[in-house]
Amino acid sequence: MKQPLTRARKTSADLLAYGLLLALFIVRFFYIGSMDLAPDEAYYWDWSRHLGFGYFDHPPLAAWFIYLSTRLFGDTLRGVKFMAVFSSLVAAGGSYYLARRFVSRTSSLFLFVIIANTVVLFGVGSLIATPDVPMVLFWSLGLVFAYKAALESSRSSWAWLGLTVGLGLLSKYIFALFVFSLLLFLLFYKGLRRTFPWKGLVLALALAFGVFLPNLVWNWRHRWVTILFQFHHGVAGANYTHFNFLGEYLSGQAGVLSLFPFLVLVWAFVSEWRAIRSDPRKGFLAFFCLVPFCFFAITSLQKRVEANWAAPAYLSGLILIPILFEKLQGDGNKLKRLCIEASAAVSTAALLLIMIHAQKPFLPLSPNIDPTMQVRGWRQWARDVVSVEKNIDPAMRLPLCGNRYQETALLAFYAPGHPRTLSLNLDARENDYTLMQKGLDSTAHGAFLVLPTEDRELPPAINAYFIRSRRVGEVYRKWNGRILDSFGIFEVEKR
Q1: Per residue in 465-491, pLDDT tens?
Q2: Consecutive H or E run containing 334
């Protein structure tokens, strides 16, 4: 029978775990100063320069987080990325706090801290400023408050749960799956249904709605633009089934979670399935894992699902691994324990290789399939664009302009002085620049348009928008002497 942690063992385990988390935080803090921004990170940074309760693509919390961190570190790499690193520290601490309620041995808790922080999804995700950052943070904290409220009868946790759910919804709309997971969990276990304080849950949901309400009002004023975009982008799909997309989704989960931890997680679910059906405590972990995982598995039958969308599933699901590990310790099964330890070692090694490769590429990967190429060469590329612009227009009267949000945001961040840049969005998907530039005749007196192309002329669909255009230069995004992308610079004048 599992023995509870003694006070001394709790202190030892906590010191080890929180010390390791703090060390990871320090390493990550210094590491992010050497990384270029990815295009989407620059895009979210540009949002933070005009704060609001909503944006075209997402709710507002990603921009608010970047705004807070840039107040500390300025419009720098660390300024954009700091809240990602800090939020990962707090989220990992919340997950550890919850894991302590399920395992009693220091070795099991140490294993959990290693796996939860070195799988690719969270190890790399902690370095990138995206809407997933606040979403994962509040999902982790929400798990703690929901567990304390539902299974430990903590009355004060209901208010904290409501606040957390509201902030989670302000991060990403898929946080609604948290509420759905909680309701399904409560309805599944008869014992909970009979004695559960439903009034506390109703008050928590009312508070969550109040926190989330400003974004709903913003959407109403903007014709529900974000909600409709996310529905079509994340849920709506074709009228026929794509089993190959499901295969891509499952293989993607094995990839972002790291293959061996993913297999061990499946093993843990199978091993604990009977306990999950009868024990609400373990069922709590399972429901908050299975609901988002299965939701996106079903969604993938209609359209491609990005691998990171199911990230919340693993915040509770990974706790099943130390539970299995501790069970094997009690059974004295050294070989199976060794397999789990090896999976943690492999995921750690894989993360280290990725982080080293991002700094000094050594893996034999083509630029077309190397994801680290997204964060290379943009700083010099922006300087080259500005250099061409100054040669043509020394007074810099014409604005810098991109056709897609990616180039537009990167120019805004890396060009000296962080100028306001414009995005035409011609023959490209709409984005938040559509809203920022509404009512602005952005190219009335011409502009310098930066376009990824090797052609001497603008593509017909874009050229038709202008009365005059001429190519005035070209720049390349390079890394280690290798050309990654070619861009033409055109001086254009609107009709």
Answers
A1: 888 888 999 999 998 888 899 999 999
A2: helix 334-359
Read off the pLDDT of residues 4-29 as tens digits, 9 standing for 90 and up.
455 555 667 788 899 999 999 999 99
What are residue 298's phi and psi, to 5 degrees? -65, -45
Instruction: Classify residue 72 as left (phi > 0), alpha (psi -120 to 50) or beta.
Output: alpha
**Mind listing the pLDDT tens digit for each residue in 146-184?**
999 999 989 999 999 999 999 999 999 999 999 999 999
| Residues 205, 215: Cα–Cα separation, whole Å | 16
Helix ranges restricted to H, 222-279: 225-234, 243-256, 259-271, 273-278
Strand partners, 491: 448, 470
**412, 419 in Cβ contact below 8 A?**
yes
HSE, CB side, 13 Å, CA atoms: give it for residue 10: 10
> H-type helices in 32-105, by residue range?
39-47, 61-73, 77-99
439, two tokens: 């009512």
Per the document, the length of the chain is 495
Burial 311-350 (b: 16+ CB within 10 A, else e): bbbbbbbbbbbbbbbbbbbeeeeeebbebbeebbeebbeb
Strands 482-494 and 422-423: unpaired
Name the one residue in this structure whose structure tokens are 């693509």.
Answer: 57
Of 212, 232, 175, the closest CA to residue 56 belongs to 232
Sign of CA dihedral 254, 304, 402, 51: negative
Structural domain spans, the chain: 7-359, 377-494
Residue holding tokens 């699901």? 317
Interacting residues of 228 by C-beta distance below 8 A, sequence separation 6+: none
